Amino acid sequence: MLIDSNIIIYAMKPEHEELRLIIDKTAPYVSAVSYVEVLGYHKLKEDEKHCIRDFFRASLILPISQKVQDKAVFLRQQRRMTLGDALIAGTALVFDLKLVTRNIGDFQWIDDLTLINPFDESSNTWQSMDLD
């Protein structure tokens, strides 16, 4: 599974311990875009930077390869979307990974992309499914 930037940010908050536990169990993948988006936020405090760096050390950061770039270009040609979202979705598609995000609406139009929203209380898929 590929963890979107917003999930990394939510997982840092004390009230989301369950989210951190599930992420810890899955050894997630992240896009290089999320690395830049999350760690590059200019208002991070030192303790937050430390926590985020630990997370990225434990994750496999997937590069923005030519295949990912080509997929992102294709997606942006289909519909207006941010560059970051296009690269993250492209990464998930190229590496055949489920995308874990709270922003389902940004991606739900992409046919071949499997989405998981860990905040969707109507579904237990996050806790019960095979999270590879």
TrEMBL record:
One of its GO terms (molecular function) is metal ion binding. Its cofactor is Mg(2+). Keywords: Hydrolase, Magnesium, Metal-binding, Nuclease. Gene3D superfamilies: 5'-nuclease. The keyword Hydrolase applies. Residues 1-103 form the PIN domain. InterPro entries: PIN-like_dom_sf, PIN_dom, Type_II_TA_system_RNase. This is Twitching motility protein PilT. It comes from Methanocalculus chunghsingensis.
